[in-house]
Amino acid sequence: MDRLKEMEAFATVVDQGGFTDAAKKMGISKSAVSKYLSSLEARLGARLLNRTTRRVSPTEIGLVYYDRARRVLNDAGEADNLVASMQSAPSGPLRVSVATDFGVNHLSPIIGDFLAEYPDITVNMVLNNRFVELISEGFDMAIRIGELEDSTLRSRKIAETTKRMVASPKYFKEYGMPEKIDDLNEHMLLHYSNQSNGNVWKLTAPSGEKRHVRSAGWLTVNDGQSLLNAAISGLGIAYLPSFLYRESLEEGLVAEAMTDQPAERLGIYAVYPPGRFTQPKVRSFIDFLVAHFADQDQPI
Question: Is 280 within 8 Å of 88 (Cβ atoms)?
Fold first, then answer.
């Protein structure tokens, strides 16, 4: 006989306080409930219920078995719901945190394609330049660039970008083009204040040596576009991801410095709360982003 059905019959009898109400709850006959209980007690070799003409109550062993059986039944129910949820059509509100620069340059232009593909999802894209606490602040996921520090979150890489030093041609004409890392000590550097490592540039010399450039910087801001604007204006050298300055580079507004030096490669990740189950709306958006950026034949 079905073990889960036996457990369910026993637990329902305890919950309902009798065979009649348990049978109604389960949608089966009273005799079927009694048959399940008899089979369970025979298989276990123990009496689980005290039966009188007026009431039914669990024995001491029955109480112990009830606690464990109820947990098993709850787990089984959650497993069924999990499969049903994973197969359901993605729907509902999707709240996403993303850095302003990346959101403006790369998510805003394609979000319409995603909504057209998944009309039952509504997207609330919050653009900011800080690391939000996903769960406590009510976000379903976030897009983060660079090294991931929070190991408790699940992540999936969706793309790559590179970082290089850029400044306006005017600046390089006036102050000279740095040729090696040590030359940066003589230049005006522009910093991004939201980096966890502060005003430190992590660079790789042509020899492969890892170097850290520390400078107070002439200007520090918390927005990448503002940093690019400062570089275009000739205020100094900024160390920026290529997706942010590429258009300005093509227009001649900025030039790259020290191009013989290996560019720093940064992963772009979708991060989302831990757990074995990923909500369909989150999974569908991540799959959409992975497919979109897979068409790029180089870092963005």
Answer: yes
What is the CA 227 to chain-centroid distance, rounded? Answer: 27
Report the distance separating Cα 105 and Cα 116, nearest Å: 20
Q: Tell me, what's the pLDDT at 147?
A: 83
CA dihedral 139, 140, 144, 147 (to 10 degrees): 100
Cα–Cα distance, 300 to 1 (Å, whole number) = 60
Residue 288 has, within 13 A of its CA and on its CB side, a CA count of 18
Token duo for residue 275: 């757990």
Global pTM exceeds 0.85: no
Round the CA-based radius of gyration of the chain to a whole number and report it.
31
127 close to 142: Cβ distance less than 8 angstroms = no
Element (H, E) at 292: helix 280-294
Structure tokens at 181: 């890392």
pLDDT tens digits, 40-88: 999 999 999 998 777 889 999 999 999 999 989 888 887 776 676 666 7
Fold of 92-155+268-294: D-Maltodextrin-Binding Protein; domain 2 (3.40.190)
Cβ atoms of 280 and 85 within 8 Å: the answer is yes
- 56 contacts 11 by C-beta, under 8 angstroms: no
Question: Topology of 161-265 in CATH?
Answer: D-Maltodextrin-Binding Protein; domain 2 (3.40.190)
Cα–Cα separations (whole angstroms), residue 220 to 98, 188, 201 = 21, 11, 13
The architecture in CATH of the region 3-87 reads Orthogonal Bundle (1.10)
The full DSSP string for 112-142 is HHHHHH-TTEEEEEEE-SS---TTTTT-SEE
Q: Which two tokens stand for residue 194?
A: 């939201």
- The angle at the Cα of 147, spanning 143 to 148, to the nearest 5 degrees, equals 60
Handedness of CA 62, 67, 71, 74 (dihedral sign): positive
